[in-house]
Automatic annotation (TrEMBL):
Biased composition, class Polar residues, residue ranges: 1-10
Region of interest (Disordered), ranges: 1-87
Protein name: Protein Shroom2
Highest taxon in the source lineage: Eukaryota
Taxonomic source organism: Anthurium amnicola
Basic and acidic residues: bias regions: 36-49, 57-73
Name of the gene: Shroom2_1
Amino acid sequence: MDITPQQPHQSESSSSKITGSLDPNVPPFTPSDDLSSAKKDKQKEDLEKGAGSTSQKTRDGGSSKSTPDDSNKNKNNKRRRPRIEKVITGYIPTQQNNVIELFVYDVPAVWSIHQILVHLKDWGSTIQLSSKRQRKYQTIKVLIELNDAGLAAYQRGEWTVSLGGIPVRWFPGTYSLKERKHRERFVAIIKQLPDDLTTATLYQGSPHQFLLNARVDAFKIIKLADGSRKLLGYYKNLDDMKAVIGNKQSWGEFSLEWCTLDSLAPKKKERTQP
């Protein structure tokens, strides 16, 4: 197995600075000097004075204007670039009809390539794998010869499957980013989740009955800036989503209600007509 890390391209830049100082030993200009030579000396003197004053202003703590290029460079340096790794296992498939290319979402970023390959054995035999890490999660693209169980789940059109005991979302490798985002179009949510309602309690190798009752095709829990959390349930079509809106489900002593995203959005103030 060959592992070939790919480092993001970084552009190199160089800056030049004009510096100079006046030489007190330079003889003053006299009428006997050549006129063209005097002009050159005067231009050199003006240039040196300008560079010297600029350098002194910077050393004295004066403010300097940053160029758009400089600001862009600072933004690019602050922005964390995704880390990409690729693996070719060398496995030669024996069942070509079972070979599928997949995008896999929600894989923990802390998982190494080796861990991912170990967990993928539950799906079948990996031929090629690439991983793109960003923040808490990584997206993987895998070419794999699925086993019978994995192929059956794929042919049933399941959106969520278990990888190493945790829920991940998979997509056909032929899907564009727009097509993958389209699966997030029909979503219902539950806000203000109880502390013990977590991804781990909702999915332990298979979906909890709570998710089965809601008939979600995929789900995700998001933590908001104020510390509260909300559960997102994704559906394949509008009718399935509408069927769950307004339904209440019990979680321990709590009664939780499914609603739409629009119901959480702040209402716009109506303008009074003149």
